[in-house]
Amino acid sequence: MMSYVAPADAPSVEDIFPPEAAWRSLMPILAVLLCWGAAAFAITNSYYLLLMTMVPVWAAFGLSWNLFSGYSGLISFGHAAFFGLGAYFVTLAFIVFGLTPWLGIPIAGLLGAVAALLIGLPTFRLRGHYFALAMLAYPLALLSIFEWLGYEEVTLPMKREAGATWMQFADYHVYVFLALALLGGAMLLTRAVERSRLGLALVAIRQNEPAAEAAGIDTLRRKLQALSLSGGLAALTGGFYAVILLVVTPDSVFGMLVSAQALTLAMFGGVGSVWGPIIGAVILIPLSELLQAKLGAVIPGIQGVVYGLAIVAVILLAREGLFWRVKDLLRRPAAQAMPLAPAATPPPAPPPRSEATDAMPLLEVTGPLLEVTGLSRAFGGLHAVQDVSFSVRSGEILGVIGPNGAGKTTLFNLLNGFVRPDAGAVLLRGQNILGQQPNRICRAGIGRTFQVVRPFARMTVADNVRAGAHVHGASEAEARALARAALVRTGIAGQARMLASQLTNLQLRQMELARALAGSPDLLLLDEPLAGLGAGEIEVLIDVVRRIAADGVTIVIIEHTLHAMVRLVDRFIVLDHGTVLATGSPTEVTQNPAVIEAYLGKAWAEHA
Amino acid sequence: MLQQIENVLQSLEAGLVVGAVYGLMCAGLGLIFGVMRVINFAQGDFMMLGMYAAYYLMAALGLQVLLGDAAPFMAAIAAGPLLLVVGYVVHWLLISRVSGTRVLTLEGEGHSAQLILTLGIALILQNGGRVLFGASPVSIQTTLSSEAWEIGPLYGDDISIFVNQARGVSAVVAVLVAGALYLFVTRSRVGKSLRAAADNVQAAIYMGIDVDRSHRLAFSLGIGITAIAGGLLATGYAFTPYVGLDYVIVMYAGVVLGGLGSVFGAFWGGMTIGLIQQISSLFLPTQLQNTAIFAVFLLVVFLRPQGMFGRVSERT
């Protein structure tokens, strides 16, 4: 693989990824925790102290839900399963083995993480609705199991002597500080995840899971990591909750309202941020407690009604939650896109592909990069791809053409692992890659773009491309350098700090190319990259593709715009009804009567 | 030995009878899910409203005196149109904001909004129900719920099956209502437009079908149907405002088991769940019956990928 050297006037890595001061974003977290702790000193009423303990505890639980569902976008209705396991573990370990909560709570965290892995492994096979429903089943099943086991109400024994050893304090202030420590830990964990590759991968999964997978992100592994961190934190919180309340019942820790609590706080405050669940807890917990205290005796159930109303109001009025709503309002005046300095905008002139490279010699010296034999896949009775064989030589641009429904996209889906074949073999540099997961195939060196562009819409262009660069970039600095190179090569570096949702169609195509390129692929599969582009835009993109090819990346391209293709590709393969109709140079193929017939019908074939 | 055979037969009978009502419940949810692709978490709580509607209709209108033994079943059926109106209003005010043509362009993001909105509605209904109806269990008392028909003796003098009369009649009514729904969806013009909207929203719009109207109809009809099932279940069965939670999973298990989007399939799915529940009572303690249903539900969801992913050939 050739290494690419960016021109001197291209934006630097620092232009594209502005450095953030780590300590500055830590200050607000510290400040809030300190203020909360200081405020607790001023209070002596034990009821209010309990309330001041519960707010950080529920906020931590909300953060645990947010850590998984908020970032990945997979809604879990089952976080009570982890919370309840933590609470029951700490309580039962205390009673049965005399284990102090100081040890019980951390162990509960580990247990929660393991439980999350066990639950996640089968459940991540499900998507969307089914995932959410299946997650709901776990805590409810556990609830009835714990009832059946006879743990309908378990009380932590009081240890009057040496209370501190058993995490029992006469001074309620201590609980407030412990809760704040827990919350602080949860916030730091969330912040660390947010800034890590895991965080970027989760956000990519949330926005477009197939695209994330195709960009080399091992989505299953990332989701499992996130769920186990989240489950561990939830179980820790549950364990601490048991210590505070001293009584555990299946309903109070596994119940539907518990799962709903986590989700409500995070949704209300703002998903996918460190602050959302805290804002939610600070507003909703005192509100519902107050209602419960003042009206609970007269109107039991009022707490649940308030939660329900809060959820409905958030969905209708501020779908992303308060935090984002307020942030949007504050940012509105400066919300316009901020393209970089002038030097970035025009892509450098492409080196014209010389006459010599259009001819054969270069291609003959190198062996096949990709060897496809007998590839077949049927959907029901439809043979989408049937016994397709061809090879791709290193360094060439191979065009795949064919009428609509010829099986072109299915072919790509087979090559990059989205679809499993019924039969056949695909060898990349002699290694069989068939049946592997898309992220593995991406790592092996096959990148792809999509017929309908699949950006991570809410991420910056730079982060979109950085997500693709993590395939190979060992260090973050390397990943950033790769991302920058890809942005410059595709001529989109000037828009690096814009949100993907603000881009034009051409820019989206360029960005998708950059994302695929950032993974340093040997082979790029481009699925109709020119679709929907104007004549001038087509030229821009063709130049980009040529430049990438000139740097040594082999390209297979699906396209309908034949006049553009004829100028671009070295060789065609023509698909029709899932089989290879013809292969050859542009001239051979465009004059082949069978090809003309497939495209235009018999009458035209006779004319030709 | 004979005793065990009788127990098995008796559970089968109970399963079929309960299953018919579960089936109707699932048919209502199946209609909503099939047409709208919206997971309605509040379905069980709408069913709870149906139960209380039937309960209060019985109490307030003195139906018992007028109609005698048929009264509870008439009340259950009357709960249908009542809840249909409730469903219509809820869809109009809330659900339509996050479903139908409004979220056509949103990939994925729209679904979580629907899930969470219906969760909010569920919480309001459960706890609002507690405020309105109180937390103590009630049931619709009829003379039939304490009487049984005897089938048999089937073998010698030993094996007989007893069918609780209230449950038996409920099952028959459930089957009739489900049949009427099936005819409506497959035969009537409106039913066909519902199915068109379910198959492909975009295409249905181009064919001049008002998709949002179809969704509203499906939603309110689905709520009404499930409410009738609730009313039928309420005869001789004590319930509280929180009863819906127990049935959400039952319903989704049935709908998924029956194959998504098919009202007919949902009915059989519900029937199967009823049988599983009753048969599991032969060897599982009562507290674990729900766990058995959850286990079956998880198995179904895991083992039926075609149901899980909808159409397999995702276009990229």
Describe the structure.
The complex is a heterodimer of chains A (608) and B (316). In chain A, strands 8-9-10-5-11-12 form a six-stranded mixed β-sheet, with helices on both faces. A four-stranded antiparallel β-sheet of chain A has the order 4-3-6-7, covered by helices on one side. Chain A has a two-stranded antiparallel ribbon with strand order 1-2. Chain A is 58% helix and 11% strand. Chain A is elongated, with a radius of gyration of 29 Å. Chain A is an alpha/beta fold and 608 residues long. Chain A has helices spanning 13-16, 22-41, 46-72, 79-97, 101-123, 128-148, 173-195, 197-207, 209-214, 219-245, 250-254, 256-269, 276-295, 302-317, 322-331, 355-358, 361-365, 408-415, 438-444, 461-469, 476-489, 505-518, 535-550, 562-568, 586-591, 593-600, 602-607, and strands spanning 154-155, 247-248, 368-379, 382-393, 397-401, 423-428, 431-432, 446-448, 523-527, 554-558, 571-576, 579-584. In chain B, helix 1 runs antiparallel to helix 11 (263-280), helix 6 (165-187) packs antiparallel against helix 9 (211-233) and helix 11 (263-280) crosses helix 12 (289-303). Chain B is mainly α and 316 residues long. Chain B has helices spanning 2-36, 43-61, 63-67, 71-93, 109-133, 165-187, 189-199, 201-206, 211-233, 243-257, 263-280, 289-303, 305-308, and strands at residues 148-155, 159-164. Chain B starts with a helix and ends in an 8-residue tail after the last helix. Chain B is globular. Chain B has 13 helices and two strands; from the N terminus they run αααααββαααααααα. At the A-B interface, helix 6, helix 12, helix 14 and helix 18 of A face helix 5, helix 10 and helix 12 of B.
